[in-house]
Amino acid sequence: MPDGLNIAVFASGKGSNFRSLLGAIDSGTIPNTRIALLVSNNPKAGALETARDKGIPVLRISLDQFTTEEEYCSTLIEALRKDRVNFIALAGYMKKLSPRLISRYRNRIVNIHPALLPAFGGPGMYGKHVHEAVLGAGATVTGATVHFVDEDYDHGPIILQRSIPVQPSDTPETLAARVLTLEHDLYPEAIRLIAEGKVLVDAQHVTIMNSG
Ligand code: GRF
Fold it and tell me: Which of 40, 46, 90, 194 lies 20 to 30 angstroms, CA to CA, from 61?
């Protein structure tokens, strides 16, 4: 992007992907990018503590603080506008985004999912449920996917995927840990490619320009 990425990270949980993005920005691996805001619906999210330690502004916002979804959405969009956010990275965000936000940031919202989409995605496929389903299906490979966000869960155009073998001895916990390690490389790599202007998206199709 010519103006650089001014990112809002949305996180509800531990925030390890948020930390991996921060590390890649701080080290210069992801160029021309800053994290302007951390948005969370969960007051106990580990990501909030990281943001506070790093001096990143925090917005704690959830639908139940408002009388209508419209009011909630307007407040969120206004906060993003005020901080000149031009890109959103979901990192373990447990709430569905409103269609208004998605359409305002079309092809400028990305998510990371701990499986090889379109397999093992969609409603209910989060956290350990994903890895239980992978093991239950007898899959021999799994992995992680970074994709643009559209109106359906885990559905928009895929940017990058990486796979790892499933071991016969794997439990949902061991698999989750190995996939998470993979995510910590994959998410910064995808956002680096976007920051370098190498990711072109057209409807459901993503093209990655020479990534050398
Ligand atoms: C990750 O597995 C990510 O793929 C999924 O939620 C988890 C978030 O983990 N969307 P963390 O909070 O970044 O540690």
Answer: 194
The tens digit of pLDDT for each residue in 12-28 reads 999 999 999 999 999 99
Residue 212's pLDDT band (boundaries 50, 70, 90)?
low
Between the two ends of the chain, the Cα-to-Cα distance in Å is 18
The closest residue, in CA terms, to atom 6 on ligand 1 is 92
Element spanning 138, H or E:
none
User: What's the pLDDT score for residue 49?
Assistant: 96
How much is the mean pLDDT over the chain?
Answer: 96
Closest CA to 21 of 161, 175, 191, 198: 191
Q: What's the CA angle centered on 211, arms 210 and 212, to 5 degrees? A: 95
Query: What is the distance in A from the centroid of ligand 1 to the CA of 111?
Result: 10
At 80 the three-state DSSP class reads helix
Residue whose Cα lies nearest atom 10 of ligand 1: it is 92
